Here is the input.
Amino acid sequence: MVATTEAVAGERSPSVARARILETAAALFYREGVRAVGVDLVVERSGVAKTSLYRHFTTKDDLVVAFLEQEDAEYWRDWDGVAEKAKGDPLAELEAHIRWIANHILKPTYRGCPFLNVATEFPDAAHPARAITTRHKLELHRRLAVLAKQAGIRKPAELADQLGLLFDGAYMNGHLTGKKGPVRSFVAAGIALLRLAQEQKK
Here is the structure.
């Protein structure tokens, strides 16, 4: 079998090949689910030789981990972008994050939270993919608690708990029922939690 132009180019540029493999796998994993996507499909869609794939990702689990690491980095990059616009006002920042998440969920390409999706597919807590999903959710809680504390909320960890649960509920329900479902109340519910927490600190 004659190698494709893309495969040959990928072999000559390892970093390009890796990026192509990861980009292809990430799109497939997010759209169709990790377990439903085999390595052969990633090879076919990326146009990179299977030997190249295994050179960069020894196992499929390694590819899944790279996908989640990339999602994690992108999520916090977007989070920091939102934070920058409300810099110096922690309550305004919390509300901005709620609105940002709502807008993300309503996008036509939204297929759920990648971390929750993967966690559902891999019930074993020792699986490396689960470690990343847990780390991501703990970091979300930490950031929410820091903002709540900066805003003078009396029980910042409690507010972080509530917002974290609200976020995850919106992530899942938004995927299942769309913009006409309960997710349409997400922003109002989030702001109500913020106002209630403000009242309790007085």
In short: Residues 60-85 form the longest helix (26 residues).
